[in-house]
Amino acid sequence: MSECRSLVAIIGGTGLNDFQQGRVAGERQTPFGETSADIIVSAVADQPLAFLARHGRPHSISPHKINYRANLWALKQLGVEQVIAVNAVGGIHTDLPAGSIVIPDQLIDYTYGREHTFFDGGRASLEHIDFTYPFTESLRGQLVNAAHHSGITVVDTAVYGAVQGPRLETVAEVNRLEKDGCDIIGMTAMPEAALARELSMDYASLCLVVNPAAGRSEILITMTDIHAVIDTGMIKVRKLLTAMILEKAVDTQSTRCTRGAGPRFR
After folding, report:
1. What are the b/e assignments for 174-195, b being 16+ CB within 10 Å?
2. pTM of the model
3. How many other CB atoms are there within 10 angstroms of residue 162's CB atom?
4. Among 205, 237, 212, 240, CA closest to 226
5. How many C-beta atoms surround the C-beta of residue 61 within 10 A?
6. Is the distance from CB of 76 to CB of 201 less than 8 angstroms?
7. What is the 3-state secondary structure (H, E, C) of 5-71?
8. What Å distances lie between residue 247 and 146, 214, 237, CA to CA?
9. According to the 3-state scheme, what is the secondary structure of 119-143?
């Protein structure tokens, strides 16, 4: 299998061990530092697939410490053109209980201090990407269709509030996020989505609600409860991802190697 055919990548972690079996591809070292983990390349029904553990292996890198630029750059160097991000999130609304699967269409970025662009003035000429729609609609559509064909219920419109972490939020912070229009709260969609856009890669987020947000439940949030939801919810996530990959119509004649594509760096 050519590394240049690894057109689809999953960025995720806990509960996605099925996609972490394969061969190591590419180098962890990039012009922006080291990736979170080795990129693992495998195949699902002859469809090439790359997997990157966002928080490292073992799961140890805090959301604000992830080298998002290195991760996205390394995937681009392998020829990845589509990125599916799997995110664990909190649900603000009562109609998004733990275990819900959400495919967001918008986001609000509350993160700070993260290396959030390749256009940092030192390596490439400045470009202002259009980020009106942060998630690629065609890729979102593929996820929604795969869920429908698999009999998996998903919420296909939602606003993802990207917060700093690693702590969870206060009740007042969740109230503010709700007033801002957020439906779910996560810690890793940004700057990941924007960096993918800068590298001209399609990007969509597949979210598993693992807990009600602060103040949306009468009981305190515990990591034990969150992990229990992940253990069961990721079964549906894996099923949906596998269905989408199986349904992808890949024209191998038009597949091209995009190694080195993207911004020109000195």
Report:
1. beebbeeebbbbbbbbbbbbbb
2. 0.88
3. 26
4. 212
5. 18
6. yes
7. HCCEEEEECCCCHHHCCCEEECCCEECCEECCCCEEEEEECCEEEEEEECCCCCCCCCHHHCCHHHH
8. 7, 38, 15
9. CCCCCCCCCCCCCCCCCCHHHHHHH
CB of 50 closer than 8 Å to CB of 66: no
Identity of the amino acid at 207: C
Tell the residue number behind the tokens 């349904």, with chain if given. Answer: 247
Angle at which helices 223-247 and 137-150 pack, to 10 degrees?
A: 100
Averaged in consecutive runs of 10 residues, what is the pLDDT profile of the chain (266 residues)? Answer: 62 75 86 95 86 90 96 95 96 94 98 93 80 97 95 97 96 97 98 97 97 87 83 92 80 41 45
The two structure tokens encoding residue 52: 């990157």
**What is the DSSP secondary structure assignment for residue 95, as one 8-state letter?**
T
What pLDDT digit, counting tens, does each position of 136-190 carry?
A: 999 999 999 999 999 999 999 999 999 999 999 999 999 999 999 999 999 999 9
> Whose CA is closest to 205, among 243, 261, 154?
154
> How far apart (Å, rounded) are the C-alpha atoms in residues 16 and 36?
16
What is the enclosing helix (H) or strand (E) of 235? helix 223-247
The pair of structure tokens assigned to 180 is 């801002």
